[in-house]
C-alpha cells in the first residue's frame, strides 16, 4: 500500500506544474493554472458524523463506503480512534476500517487525537492517521487538553512507536484553526507555519491545513498556502475547509491555484466542531467534485452517483440539517444527458 501511495504522489507530481486538461465528464473550458488532477477525500464518516446527534449504524456506514467507492472515491477517512464514551457515533471505527480494507486501492485513514488512538491505528493497519493540532492555543486546550507544542511532542512519540512496530501507516499532521478561531480570534500565520514545520521535524510524513471554524477567505488562503508550500513543498498534503460562511468552494479554488491537489469534504456538507461554537459543515463532497470536474480537473468521481448516494443519506439522517447546493438544481440538463450517454468506462475513473 505504501508503494501505491508513493505512485499516487508521483502521478500528481507529473500533472504539476499545471497543464490544460479536459474532463471526461463535463467538457468545459481549459483550466486556469492548478493541478489537472485532484483528490476529494471523504471525511463525512468522521468529521461529519461526529458532529451530529444521529448515530449511524455500522451497516449504513458500510453502505456509504461501498457507494462512495463505487462512485470513484479512493481516499476516505473512516472514523476516529477515540474513547466510545466521548464519541459514541464513531465507536465502530475498527469495524468500518476493516471493511474499507477489503476495497482494493482504497486508502483508508483515521483521525487519532492522541498516542492511545495512534496505537489503535497502527494495530488495525490504517493507511494513514491524521493527528490534529490546533494552531489556536485556546482551541487546542478546549479540544485536545494540550498546548500545540504538547501535540508536537505526542507526534514524536507516535512516530517512534510506528518505527518500532515497523508499520507503514503514514502520519499526517492536521493543523487546524489555521485561519483563526472562535475562541481566540486571530491566529498568526507565523505560528501556523512554525507548528507545521515542527510537526514535520517531529516525524509527521505530511501536513495539512484546516479552516476548522470557517474564518478563511480566498485571499488569506492563497497567502498562507503559498507560504506553507514554499516552506514544506509537496509535504503540504491537503486542504480542509468548512463552509461556515459560504466561502468553502472559493477557498478550495484559491488553494488549488497554489498547487494543492487534495481536499477534504463531507457528503451533503455535514460536519463541524463541537468545541468551536458556530462551526458548521465541511465543503459538500458532491458540490466540490462537480466544481472541479466542471473546471476540467479530473477527480475520478462519478458526480451523478454521488447525488444518488446523497439522496440515500438524506433518508438515513432524517431530521439532521444537510447542506450543499448541487442536489437542489441537479446537474445541468445537457451535462446530465452527456453523462448518461457516455461510455461506461467514463463513468468512474479511479485515481
Ligand atoms: Zn473539520
Automatic annotation (TrEMBL):
Gene3D superfamilies: Aldolase class I. Transmembrane segments: none annotated. SUPFAM superfamilies: Aldolase. CDD domains: DRE_TIM_HMGL. InterPro entries: AIPM/Hcit_synth_CS, Aldolase_TIM, HMGL, PYR_CT. One of its GO terms (molecular function) is hydroxymethylglutaryl-CoA lyase activity. Residues 38-307 form the Pyruvate carboxyltransferase domain. PROSITE patterns: AIPM_HOMOCIT_SYNTH_1, PYR_CT. Keywords: Lyase, Metal-binding, Pyruvate, Transferase. GO terms for biological process: ketone body biosynthetic process; L-leucine catabolic process. Belongs to the HMG-CoA lyase family. NCBIfam families: PRK05692.1 (NF004283). This is Pyruvate carboxyltransferase. It comes from Acidovorax delafieldii 2AN.
Amino acid at each position: 500500500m505504501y508503494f501505491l501511495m508513493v505512485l499516487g504522489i508521483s502521478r500528481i507530481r507529473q500533472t504539476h506544474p499545471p497543464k490544460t486538461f479536459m474532463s471526461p465528464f463535463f467538457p468545459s473550458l481549459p483550466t486556469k493554472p492548478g493541478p489537472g488532477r485532484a483528490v476529494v477525500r471523504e471525511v463525512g464518516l468522521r468529521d461529519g458524523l461526529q458532529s451530529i446527534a444521529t448515530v449511524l449504524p455500522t451497516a449504513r456506514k458500510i453502505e456509504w463506503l461501498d457507494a462512495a467507492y463505487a462512485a470513484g472515491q479512493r481516499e476516505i477517512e473512516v472514523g476516529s480512534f477515540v474513547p466510545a464514551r466521548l464519541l459514541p457515533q464513531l465507536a465502530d471505527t475498527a469495524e468500518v476500517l476493516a471493511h474499507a480494507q477489503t476495497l482494493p486501492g482504497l486508502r483508508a485513514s483515521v483521525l487519532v487525537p492522541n498516542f492511545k488512538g495512534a496505537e489503535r491505528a497502527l494495530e488495525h493497519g490504517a493507511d494513514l492517521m491524521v493527528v490534529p493540532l490546533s494552531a489556536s492555543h485556546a482551541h487546542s486546550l478546549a479540544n485536545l487538553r494540550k498546548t500545540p507544542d504538547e501535540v508536537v511532542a505526542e507526534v514524536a512519540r507516535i512516530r517512534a512507536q510506528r518505527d518500532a512496530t515497523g508499520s507503514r501507516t503514514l502520519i499526517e499532521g492536521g493543523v487546524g484553526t489555521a485561519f483563526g478561531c472562535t475562541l481566540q480570534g486571530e491566529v498568526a500565520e507565523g505560528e501556523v507555519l512554525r507548528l507545521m514545520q515542527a510537526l514535520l521535524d517531529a516525524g509527521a510524513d505530511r501536513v495539512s491545513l484546516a479552516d476548522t471554524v470557517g474564518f478563511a477567505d480566498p485571499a488569506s488562503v492563497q497567502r498562507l498556502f503559498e507560504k506553507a508550500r514554499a516552506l514544506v513543498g509537496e509535504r503540504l498534503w491537503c486542504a480542509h475547509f468548512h463552509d461556515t460562511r459560504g466561502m468553502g468552494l472559493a477557498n478550495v479554488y484559491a488553494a488549488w491555484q497554489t498547487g494543492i491537489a487534495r481536499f477534504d469534504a463531507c457528503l451533503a456538507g455535514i460536519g463541524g466542531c463541537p468545541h468551536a461554537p458556530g462551526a458548521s459543515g465541511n465543503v459538500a463532497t458532491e458540490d466540490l467534485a462537480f466544481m472541479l470536474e466542471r473546471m476540467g480537473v479530473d477527480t475520478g468521481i462519478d458526480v451523478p452517483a454521488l447525488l444518488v448516494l446523497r439522496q440515500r443519506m438524506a433518508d438515513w439522517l432524517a431530521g439532521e440539517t444537510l447542506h450543499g447546493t448541487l442536489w437542489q438544481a441537479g446537474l445541468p440538463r445537457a451535462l446530465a444527458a452527456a453523462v448518461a450517454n457516455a461510455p461506461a468506462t467514463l463513468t468512474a475513473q479511479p485515481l
